[in-house]
Amino acid sequence: MSVKVYYHQKCTTCKKALKFLDDNGVDYNGVVITEKAPSVAELKKALRSVEKLRKLFNTSGMEYRNRNLKDKIPEMSEKEAFDLLSNNGMLVKRPFLISPKGVLVGFKQTEWEELLT
Questions:
Q1: Which of 36, 37, 72, 75 could be a cystine partner for 89, CB 3.0 to 4.6 Å?
Q2: How many whole angstroms separate alpha carbon 89 and alpha carbon 58?
Q3: Tens digits of per-residue pLDDT, 54-82?
Q4: φ and ψ at 32, to 5 degrees?
Q5: How many C-beta atoms surround the C-beta of residue 55 within 10 A?
C-alpha cells in the first residue's frame, strides 16, 4: 500500500512521522506542503475524518495567527476554508496523510499504526 504524506521540512512532528513510515516499511510519496498544498478533494476527505473544519488548520502556526483565523473560521463556509487551505500549505495541519484506508491529520503514532500496519 502506498500513501501520500504532505509535510514541512522544518517540522519536528513531520520528521517523526516520516521516520515512523520509514521504520515500518510504508511506501510513501512525500510532498512538501509549502510547495504543493492538499487539493480541495483531499481536504474534503480529511474533513470526514476529523469532523470539524478547524481541525484541518495549523492553529499553532504564525500564518494562522497573523490572519486572525481563530475568529474567522466559525463564520467561514466550507468552500472558503477549502480555498484558503488548498492555496496555502502553511495553514494546513501537518503531517497530512492520505491512504487508501483513510486520511490522518497530525501525527499520533497509535492512529498511524492502526491505519498503516
A1: 37
A2: 9
A3: 999 999 999 999 999 999 999 999 999 99
A4: -75, 115
A5: 14
Q: Find residue 104's DSSP bridge partners.
A: 97
> What's the rounded Cα separation, in Å, for the pair 5 and 28?
7
Number of structural domains in the chain? 1
Contact assessment for residue 89 and residue 35, using Cβ atoms and an 8 Å cutoff: yes
Stated pTM of the model:
0.94
Residue with cell 503531517: 95
Give me the helices (H) in 1-117, please.
12-23, 40-50, 62-66, 69-72, 78-87, 109-116
At 98, list the grid cell. 492520505
Q: Which helix (H) or strand (E) holds 117?
A: none
CATH number at residue 101: 3.40.30.10
What's the domain range around 108?
Answer: 2-116
